[in-house]
Every structure is written in structure tokens, then in C-alpha cells.
Amino acid sequence: MTRVLLTGFEPFGGADVNPSWEVARLVAATPPEGLAVTAARLSCVFGQAAEELRTAVRAFAPDLVISLGQAAGRPDVTVERVAINVDDARIPDNAGRQPVDRPVVPGGPAAYFATLPVKACVAAAREAGVPASLSHTAGTFVCNHVFYALMHLLADELPTARGGFVHIPALPSQVLDVSTPSLPADTVAHALRALLTAAATRTTDLRVPEGATH
Ligand code: PCA
């Protein structure tokens, strides 16, 4: 059994739901075959979220860790390729913290790549019938902060485990005026199950063009 830790966030920015936690719960309740999935809910707070993640990783000793976050405005499931060593918050977090141009880890490397087969993960979500793409920025808010902290932790303490980050769109109930794209939680959970299986079983990535020109 591959041990998978899946994290989602509490609501932030005035929202009353965060699809990342809804999806993490759904996948943990009905995991794909061969995977033992535990879900952990992280605060949307700089520093505290990274600490909660560290505690969960140390307690669970997973083979694979995928953190989920909401990216309202994105129309599809996006698999993040890179985490950068920058906190630069456009809005305050849930504790009122708003770091500007500060490192996630002082003295840490500029960036870490996800150690998932990211293109195979995108392909798996698409094969499950759900729109997905590769992303080259997780932003500079709490999601990138957690992604960077995760990759730093795994590099330091658990180098055999794979890690990565996936952003997901808003829920339909969050955007009833249809000004923002959305996907239902069960659709995203379906994509995530396929994605987790690919991440857990593929030893090499696909060599297909998914790059961006901007
Ligand atoms: N999305 C935010 C933080 C929590 C979440 O779900 C982000 O993209 O940084």
C-alpha cells in the first residue's frame, strides 16, 4: 500500500468553503485502489500552515504528499511544476499576516521542482475526463508557501517520498453568477484519484510538450 498524505486548506479571503479541503476529504473517504489516503486540513496562515504540514508528514510518514489549494479564476486542475522561495501576499492571510518579498526559508534554494511525474499527472486527469494542465506558478501566497515548505521538508527529512502541489478551480456554488470558471468537487476528486495513481505508480514522466510561452 502506498501511503498518501493529501492536504487541503481552510476557507480564506472571506469565503465560507475551500474546494481543496472538500476534495481532499472526498478522496480520502474513497481512495483509489492500492493507496491509503489520509487528509489533513491546513490553516491559511503563513508559517502556521507549514508547521501543520510538517507535523502531519512526521506523524504519517507518507510515500507521497500532494497539497491542494484553490485557484479561483483558473478553469482546470493545474499541476504545479515549481515552488519558489518567496512570500508576497496580495491580501492578508487568515491571521492578518501579509508578508511582502520575504523568503519562505531564509537561505533556502531559490526554487524546488515538484518530484511528481507532473506531465503524467496532467495526462491522468485528462484521461479521467477532467480538464487539466501544467502550471509554472503556484503564486506567492500561502499555497506556494506550503508547496515550498513541503519540498524543503522532504528534501531534508524524507527524500524517498514524492511531493507536489495541485491547484483546483472554484466550486460552482462559489460562482453562481458564472463570472468565474468552476468545477464540481466530485469531478475534481475523480481527477485527483487518477492523478494520485499516476503519481504513485509511474517511475518516469511523460516526455510530451506542455510548456508555456508566457
Ligand atoms: N489558495 C490560496 C491559499 C489557500 C488556497 O486554497 C493560494 O493559492 O495561495
In short:
With 214 residues, this protein is of the alpha/beta class. The chain has one domain: Aminopeptidase (3-Layer(aba) Sandwich).
Description:
The protein is α/β, with parallel strands linked by helices and about 210 residues long. The protein has one domain (about 1-200): Aminopeptidase. The protein is built from 5 helices and 8 strands. It has a 6-stranded mixed β-sheet, sandwiched between helices. α1 (about 20-30) links the parallel β1 and β2. The protein is globular and about 40 Å long. The chain starts with a strand and ends in a 13-residue tail after the last helix. The mean pLDDT is about 95. Pyroglutamic acid binds near residues 9 and 12.
Topology of helices and strands:
Elements: E1 2-9, H1 19-29, E2 35-42, H2 48-60, E3 64-70, E4 77-80, E5 82-84, E6 111-113, H3 118-127, E7 132-135, H4 142-157, E8 162-168, H5 185-201
Parallel strand pairs: 1-2, 1-3, 3-8, 4-7
Antiparallel strand pairs: 4-8, 5-6
Helix pairs in contact: 1-5, 2-4, 3-5
The protein binds pyroglutamic acid.
Pyroglutamic acid binds near residues 9, 12, 20 and 143.
Rg on CA atoms, Å: 16 Å
Strand content: 15-25%
* Average pLDDT, all residues: 97
Estimate nothing, just give the exact number of structural domains. Answer: 1
Distance between the termini: 40 Å
Q: What is the CATH homology-level superfamily?
A: Peptidase C15, pyroglutamyl peptidase I-like
> Which fold does the CATH topology refer to?
Aminopeptidase
